[in-house]
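User: Structure please.
Assistant: Input sequence and predicted structure:
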Amino acid sequence: MSMQAFDVLDGALLIDKPAGPTSHDIVDTVRQCYRIRKVGHCGTLDPAATGLLILLLGKATKLSEKIMADDKVYVGSIKLGETTNTYDAEGEIGETRPVPSLTIGALQEKANDFLGDQLQLPPMVSAIKIDGTPLYKLARKGIEVERRERFVHLYQFLISHYEAPYAWFKVACTKGTYVRTLAHDLGQALGCGAHLAGLRRTVSGKFKVGGATQLEELTTLSPGDLARRVIPMLKLSAATEP
């Protein structure tokens, strides 16, 4: 399909990211398919994670910091009894421990301890930069460095289902919250260890994944269909108002 260049397409495009590609891969797909010069994303999703990824096009990239500051909602699953070096299923298993006999009520009681304001230590395998170098690059070399704790807030940490060794959850939190760190910390609190098994972002600010475009569909849209899916600047600015 022959694509035209969009020099004046300004606004936001909601994508339902599949597991596999990085957030930057999605940006590249849009940039190359539709020849849009300025494309950015708000809030990185790990390659294995799915769900809402907000892309900003043209002049809307100036709203990046404002949109990234919005609260987020995630759903996912945690595997108890195993820790990994990345705090998720992509990493190497560090240790295994027996999972105690737990009820969903007991799990919820532990989860409630994480509600409210807290300082969270980011994982070594993350995009946070120390002296200009992303932590994950240091981690690949087996180097662990001191990280600065981040202030985050959890509005909700709901355990929705439990079938040992997996617990399914819903989390509502402020920006910068590492859900895989939360999974790891919950496992430590339970005494058996844990890691994040799956993650999906469903809400970012006033935007929901239900209104997002699937990646497979994105690559087949005509330029006109794409333009109709872009949230214009005026509406986007209104959505970021408190």
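The first helix runs from residue 23 to 34.
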